Amino acid sequence: MICAAVFAIPPLLRSSTAVIPICSSFLQLKHAALCYCTVNGKMKSKKKSDHLERTANDFRQEIISKAKVCGITSESETVKRLRLAVADKEFTFKAGQWVDFFIPGVAVVGGFSICSSPGLLEQEGELELAVKHTTHPPAHWVHTQCALNSEVALRVGGNFFFDPRPADSPADLVLIAGGVGINPLFSILLHVADLHQKQENRGTGYHMGTTNLFYSAKNSDELLFRKHILGLTDAFPGKITCSFHVTQQRSEICENLQPYVKEGRISGKDLEKYVYKKTLWYICGPPPMIESISKLLENLGVAQKNIFFEKWW
């Protein structure tokens, strides 16, 4: 994934041993990361598809934290969902950000968007990633070698996030996802639900507006997190809505999904009623989709400062 560059990259690895105790597995991770860098932090790799190279100008935290796999489930036929326990209390992230994913013995560093809410990390010290099967070494490892108690290391990065302060003005969100681009947007959606819950329980915190999710995939089986998304629309009626779009559906859509699924791509007609000044637009998907939706929003009169995007590759 990659989004517009805003911050310069900090040093790839902090030298202090207080960040992570030195051990053989961590030394392997450090070596893997350093293989991509020169002394001044520029990337040596010539592969344009390399995560570190694509995100070289994105914000990154300096801290690298150890994590242990504590849960593995199949989100679909091609996507595994990992739950990772992070003991480091300094480890934090904002809804929508990604992690550099360091694997002992794997020279390539992965880049995966976090699909859980910051609240899960705060309450249980855990986060989740949903990784699609590909031949890329980190994703291949997740699908073929990763097991419970596997140890990895993580570093948070990314300029694409939703992190309002309590005093900020209320805003409405439109989230537009394509394929596995749902991952950071699902994190944002879960964070929105947490904000609503805090308002309902305590009457404190950020006053969240409405959130409308538009999610496009080839078919209904590839709509990740669909049951959880529908659960959120039921839990927060009128505050969270969803519209699923399928572009290559070959089988009959199951009954419980039918009211929410439309055939065909997301169009201007679907989005035009949400175009007003306080709406923030978050888009994540393949580059052609980002370009198409961004142009569509521009034609609808949406200000560029209200559009945030991240491309996955």
UniProtKB/TrEMBL annotation:
Keywords: NAD, Oxidoreductase. The gene is OXNAD1. The keyword Oxidoreductase applies. Residues 56-165 form the FAD-binding FR-type domain. It comes from the Eukaryota. This is Oxidoreductase NAD-binding domain-containing protein 1. The keyword Signal does not apply. GO terms for molecular function: oxidoreductase activity. GO terms for cellular component: mitochondrion. PANTHER family: OXIDOREDUCTASE NAD-BINDING DOMAIN-CONTAINING PROTEIN 1 (PTHR46505:SF1). It comes from Eublepharis macularius (Leopard gecko). InterPro entries: FAD-bd_FR_type, FNR_nucleotide-bd, Oxidoreductase_NAD-binding, OxRdtase_FAD/NAD-bd, Riboflavin_synthase-like_b-brl.
